[in-house]
Design goal:
- The structure holds 2 protein chains of 2 kinds.
- Chain A is an alpha/beta fold.
- Chain A has a domain at about 1-95 and about 150-240: Rossmann fold, CATH 3.40.50.300.
- Chain A has 10 helices and 10 strands.
- Chain A has helices at about 45-55, 75-80, 100-105, 120-130, 150-160, 180-200, 210-215, 235, 240-255, 260-270, and strands at about 1-10, 20-30, 35-40, 60-65, 70, 80-85, 170-175, 200-205, 220-225, 225-230.
- Chain B has 2 domains: about 1-100, STAS domain (Transcription Regulator spoIIAA, 2-Layer Sandwich), CATH 3.30.750; about 120-400, no CATH class.
- The model of chain B has no long low-confidence stretch (mean pLDDT about 95).
- The chains are: A alpha/beta, B alpha+beta.
- The interface between A and B is medium-sized, with 23 and 27 residues.
- Bound molecules: adenosine-5'-diphosphate and magnesium ion.
- Adenosine-5'-diphosphate binds near residues 12, 42 and 45 of chain A.
Chain lengths: ~270, ~400
């Protein structure tokens, strides 16, 4: 279970460029829930994921994972329990290392910190078996450098690595957004099957309302560093794309609601 | 596919040049429906230069026939030749083919038909009597003991804020904008997730509402106005429609129901039930944004609205003390609620209020229910709601003093 309590984060405080990226975000995600985070650009979605992953410490608030307080824990010490996939296919893997070497890192994630762990025959068989499930014809290319793979193949591998040892939490930040539509569909399907099989607690950022509706148990909408909608349980079940569009619409309208509108309503609403 | 139109006495001739196949059927249909919207319910499709029709084309013709059927309209195909004639005949659509073209296809001025602002006298002595409920003065706490149960029967229409929940206690959290005409109720539940809901009387079921604010009008309508875009007046603002209704009824206080195609609506609707307001609640700006939703732009262009309301012309009227609000035209005051429905054409000429309302409520559910307002903010104001074409039933109000 992921518990976020009243998280705050301001970038460049006190400067002209000050951004209040998280303004008191509280959120509890039950074990095994697939939660999707949507919201306009700059609403704080990535900042929220980064805070959970430990890229920085929040200015205020608490982050707990399965009851354990992570708030002050450095990023590398969370890595054993949190799997991550970013938008950029080049971010999650080491390009000059082979598929097998990258996977070996993932297998040993959080166990001990030797950079190039020995690759036993057993380990290679295990790798080939799981890569075969990707159906990307990579199982015979274990020794090829990752840099030779397509974006879609790299994202699929990154996903496999992020979930190799079952993480307590999986964070996905628009991990299909940079891919061509065909690869994106493939990685999306892979995501769904891994999350379902492992019953992973997942927090995924997406721009695709279709993904949000189809994949999730829960849809959380952010705006200006705050959660403004939270569709869950039976309310989530009835949400369709037009409902999400309408919610975005209402946010846009709310932005147009200034003091002059308040004055107008005083004389025109009775 | 190219479409060109010629107005004749018997209707409208639309010449279709090209192929009516899957690639062009949608464009063809769009063009034809636009004519139906404009009130052309008798269409002659000139097929002299139509070279091909596929099943996709026939399907669009069937859809067009259906659409026209709802407004007692029809289309015929003239000058069909070759493959088109053969296909339609073999497919069993001979009844669409007209052997003899109508009239001499003498062109006449397009606007001549629609230009006449039509007024029908329904019942010369008809009048409405009004009743007002006022248990809520925005943005104070609701006086729950002043709430009233409202039954909008077949001789009434009403607008206000209420809830159809079973008990008054259950209603407390559910008060939202409603409008009701002849037993049919459209209402906006006061929260961000809920879609507008509606109730239709069936057998002995007649919807009832707990209301904290309402105007109920009972009685018959005396006049029906039909309006459509005119050269000198392409859109009809609510002020101009109300002024016209006051002119034909020779009354300075009226009640009315309007059905018509929307040019743009300006309005607001509750996001939270006023029943939740306590003496400690702040509803000042910016907190007000959590309580009420303002449209922010002219909305629902091209869809259909059902609007009901009451209006009066009285320079001495004090809106703070009554139920009516200032319109764009000085001295004119009104309270108006609208329900927005997906577009469907209205028949031309004299139409019945009851049947029209039923048509709306028997179709897809309303998309919105809102309190209409006149956005007179200098510079940025959105103005007043306006319609393109439609119908307005109206009658004098016999007791305007209750407003
Ligand atoms: N490291 C940073 N330094 C300064 N500003 C940042 C940083 N990261 C994010 N921001 C700002 O914080 C806001 C939220 O960004 P982000 O969380 O990336 O939004 P989203 O992922 O919803 O598009 C944006 O205005 C962004 O410019
Ligand atoms: Mg982002």
């Amino acid at each position: 279970m992921l518990e976020l309590v009243n998280l705050h984060k301001t970038f460049m405080p006190g400067t002209a460029n000050e951004v209040r990226a998280l303004q008191g975000v509280s959120l509890t995600i039950q074990p095994g829930t697939f939660a999707v985070l949507i919201g306009s650009n700059g609403s704080g979605k990535s900042t929220l994921l980064n805070a959970v992953a430990g890229s920085f410490a929040p200015d205020a608030g608490t982050i707990r994972l399965n009851g354990c307080d992570l708030t002050r824990l450095p990023e590398h010490r969370r890595a054993a329990r949190i799997g991550r996939v970013f938008q950029n296919p080049f971010a999650g893997t080491a390009a000059e290392m082979s598929i097998a070497e990258n996977l070996a890192l993932a297998m040993h994630r959080g166990k001990h910190r030797s950079l190039r762990p020995a690759l036993t025959r057993n380990a290679r068989t295990q790798m080939a078996d799981r890569i075969r499930e990707l159906k990307m014809d990579l199982e015979n290319r274990l020794d090829n450098p990752i840099g030779t793979l397509s974006g879609g193949q790299r994202q699929a591998l990154t996903l496999l690595m992020a979930t190799w040892t079952r993480p307590d939490l999986l964070l996905l930040d628009e991990h299909t957004a940079a891919l061509d539509p065909k690869s994106a569909a493939k990685v999306t399907a892979l995501t769904q099957s891994i999350v379902q099989r492992e019953k992973l607690t997942t927090l995924m950022v997406t721009h695709s309302m279709q993904q949000a509706v189809d994949m999730s148990d829960r849809i959380i909408m952010m705006h200006r560093g705050a959660i403004v909608q939270d569709y869950r349980d039976e309310h989530k079940q009835r949400i369709r794309i037009p409902d999400l569009m309408a919610a975005f619409d209402r946010l846009a309208r709310r932005e147009l609601f200034d003091e002059s509108v308040a004055d107008l309503l005083k004389s025109q609403y009775a | 596919m190219q479409l060109s139109q010629t107005k004749i006495k018997e209707g409208l001739v639309v010449k279709a040049v090209g192929r009516l196949d899957a690639s062009w059927a949608d464009l063809f249909m769009e063009g034809m429906l636009q004519e139906v919207r404009a009130g052309e319910h008798h269409l002659f499709i000139d097929a002299s230069e139509l070279t091909y029709v596929s099943s996709a084309g026939i399907r669009s013709l069937i859809l067009l026939q259906k659409e026209l059927f709802t407004v007692q309209g029809w289309f015929r195909i003239i000058h069909a030749v070759g493959m088109v004639r053969q296909t339609l005949a073999l497919a069993g659509f001979e009844q669409w083919l007209l052997e003899k073209a109508p009239g001499k296809e003498e062109p006449c001025v397009r606007e001549a038909v629609t230009d006449k602002p039509a007024c029908f006298n329904l019942q010369w002595d008809a009048a409405l009597s009004a009743r007002a409920i006022s248990a809520w003065n925005p943005w104070n706490p609701v006086r729950m003991d002043q709430c009233r149960k409202l039954v909008v029967d077949e001789q009434s229409f009403a607008l206000g804020i209420g809830s159809a929940a079973d008990t008054l206690d259950q209603s407390r959290e559910l008060f939202g904008e409603f409008m009701a005409i002849q037993g049919c109720v459209a209402m906006q539940p006061p929260d961000e997730h809920s879609r507008p809901d509606y109730l239709v009387p069936e057998k002995s079921f007649l919807p009832e509402l707990h209301s904290i604010q309402a105007i109920l009008c009972r009685g018959a309508m005396s006049h029906l106005l039909r309006f459509s875009p005119r050269t000198e007046q392409p859109v009809h603002s609510l002020s101009t429609l109300i002024t016209e209704a006051m002119r034909v009824t020779e009354a300075s206080a009226i009640g009315f129901v309007i059905a018509g195609e929307i040019e743009g609506l300006v309005g607001a609707s509750l996001l939270r039930s006023p029943g939740r307001i306590t003496p400690e609640t702040s509803t000042d700006f910016p907190a007000m944004r959590d309580w009420i939703n303002f449209c922010g732009e002219r909305m629902f262009s091209g869809e259909q609205a059902l609007i009901c309301g009451t209006a009066l012309r009285n320079e001495q009227y004090h809106p703070q003390q009554g139920a009516l609000l200032p319109l764009a035209e000085p001295g004119l005051f009104a309270h108006l609620h609208a329900a927005v429905f997906p577009y469907q054409p209205l028949p031309n000429g004299r139409i019945e209020l009851a049947a029209t309302v039923r048509r709306f409520f028997n179709g897809p559910p309303p998309r919105a229910v809102l309190h209409l307002l006149n956005d007179s903010r200098p510079g940025v104001g959105l103005g007043e709601s306006a319609l393109l074409r439609g119908a307005c039933w109206c009658a004098t109000l016999s007791n305007p003093e209750v407003l």
